[in-house]
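Self-study notes.
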Amino acid sequence: MGDIISRAVEELASRIDSFDGSVKVIIEGEGAMMIDGDGVRAADEEASCTMTADARTFQGLLTGDVNPASAFMAGRLSVDGDMGQAMKLGAVLS
């Protein structure tokens, strides 16, 4: 597991105890993590929604410097699958 994934898992785990649904977050060139009813962990599993961003964009999402909706509209964040799940996670990140 890469350092960026480790830090992202730690940061998100401090914000999310459990999540109603399942989202896989892929950080390009770094790896993937899962956010679901079991919490947050480094893993590459099936999910109802997959969000993909580069490390810089994802870091901005975590710090609040990047708005999830703006990143999506600008093509810096892609979403595949259940958009409702992405919006739920976006609310947690905001």
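Second protein, same conventions, sequence then structure:
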Amino acid sequence: MLIEVFKSKIHRVRVTQADLNYIGSITIDEALMEAANIMEGEKLQIVNNNNGARLETYAIRGERGTGVICLNGAAARMVQVGDVVIIISYAWLTPEEAKTFRPIAVFPDENNRLVKGV
């Protein structure tokens, strides 16, 4: 048996762009993706703190160091630029693996940049 557990999150980043005409996904600054151990193409849950919306999409690598958080395609209708979102990834583990697994939480600054020492 496998159970789905919280793998990692990027906590409280600001949406910098919303592109309705893009095919789909969320573009995330590559530095944030690496810090949260999120792979390009990985399925993600996006939680919008401003309006309560929750959606699923997949990650696209954005330019490193830009702080970009861009909801693309239909997901662009679920956010406004400036909204605060939480980006969450999950993993399937055996119950035994889950007992010792430790998730990663990344807490960027107000400009979506990594904070040293956090």
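Instructor comment on the second fold: The longest strand covers residues 3-14.
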